[in-house]
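Q: Got a minute? One more chain.
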Amino acid sequence: MPLENEQSREQSRRHQVTPSLASALERKSGSSPVTKHFIALTAGGTLLFTLILLVIGLSQRVEANYQTPRWAIALHLSTTLPALLIGCILFLNPKGTLLHKALGRIWAALMMTTAFASIWIRDLTGGFGPIHIFTLITLVSIPYAIWSAVRGDIEAHQRSMMGTFIGLVIAGAFSLMPGRLLGSFIWSIG
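A: Always. Here it is, folded:
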């Protein structure tokens, strides 16, 4: 008899409805079902976009006078573009919510990945250019921002993250200049 009661309780426990991540998001951040779907679509789209760019980047021949690995260019582009989109979303939405924390973690990972990939992307002489200062700033700022948030210094966290986001936008603008790999590609279309 005690065994039957224990099995019955175990079955009841298994069939109880547990709160999903979506309902937890709604409760903690006040986000709507539209926001939850947007998060899922953004994450899925980012993953798909990254995989497509990596496949394209690794399968294409890069026309350049230097030996930048194709994977570095593909990885760099496939992380900067989603980071720019997610950064805008983070900038425009309330801070401290579960949405902010989740997207912030994704953004930080994308930024660290793009910074590491940019180490292998060199200028026409094969060396580092002035744009690589953003690599160093990102590799320092992101861990500092995370450390600041963990210890409760939200002002330092915000300054560091905002500075890194502004650096992303500035570096993106410089990469579109003629003579840069991406700029040359874009300006040659048409």
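A: The chain has one domain: 34-188.
Q: Perfect, thanks.
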